[in-house]
Specification:
It is built from one helix and five strands; from the N terminus they run βββββα. It has 50 residues and is of the alpha+beta class. It has one domain. Strands 1-2-3 form a three-stranded antiparallel β-sheet, with no helix packed on it. A two-stranded antiparallel sheet has the order 4-5. The termini are far apart.
């Protein structure tokens, strides 16, 4: 079963829950697809390391 959870805040693609597995991330209360979440986390970690 595949359900739309919402839209990615960065690229506006649909984010799904498929067979009970959430295919995205929630960062700072915002919904992101996996690709955009990885990009956001990379920026967050490099900011913390500086």
């Amino acid at each position: 079963m595949r359900e739309i959870i919402g839209k990615c805040q960065a690229c506006h693609k649909d984010v799904f829950c498929e067979n009970g597995f959430f295919e995205g991330e929630q960062l700072d209360g915002k919904l992101y697809c996996v690709i955009c979440a990885e990009k956001a986390l990379e920026g967050y970690t490099s900011e913390k390391n500086e």
